Amino acid sequence: MKVISNNKSNEFKERTDIENILETSFSIRASGVVELFLCSGWNPYSYPCYYYNINETQIYFNVYQTLPEDLDGKFKTEHLEKYKGYSNILSQDEWRSFTVSFSDNVTVKLIDINLNRTLIQHKITENWKPMFMFMRSK
């Protein structure tokens, strides 16, 4: 798996290889929306991706064969899973930690480590394996 991070840009320039990992953790501190892409290739606009749109209290999850150009509005009406938190998921004042995992190509999970809760769990029906992780905030 490769981790690629970005802030306020459509370009992903910084890349870190993480080979043969089926689980990875990361921390976020943000005041706005954070997007997480788990893709089978290096470009989310050309390869299939699992997509998480995370805001302060909600998460939308979807699977895209290629990301649509007009993603901003689509994820709220066209999503496979949705999570609404009773407490803040993200905070601009504190680091929030998460784990994303893949279990034997059966499920993909997003877990809030701070509260020890599964936020999104999706049964995998797709015939590809994520190898790149991209993250960006707005």
State the gist of this model.
With about 140 residues, the protein is mostly beta strands. It has a single domain (about 1-135), classed as Jelly Rolls, CATH 2.60.120.
- Average pLDDT rating: 80
The CATH topology turns out to be: Jelly Rolls
**Strand content range:** over 45%
Order of helices and strands: EEEEEEHEEEEE
Major pleated sheet: 7 strands, mixed
Number of domains: 1
Structural class, from secondary structure content?
mainly beta
Assigned CATH architecture:
Sandwich
CATH level 1 name: Mainly Beta
Identify the strand order in the major beta sheet. 2-1-11-4-5-6-7
**Shape descriptor:** globular
* Count of helix runs: 1
Distance between the termini: 24 Å
Helical fraction equals under 10%
Catalogue the unreliable spans: none
Would you report the number of β strands?
A: 11
Rg calculated over all Cα atoms? 14 Å
Structural commentary:
This protein has 138 residues and is mainly beta. The protein has one domain (2-137): Jelly Rolls (Sandwich). Helices cover 5% and strands 48% of the residues. The strands form two sheets. The protein has a seven-stranded mixed sheet with strand order 2-1-11-4-5-6-7, with no helix packed on it. A four-stranded antiparallel sheet has the order 3-8-9-10, with no helix packed on it. The longest helix has 7 residues, at 71-77.
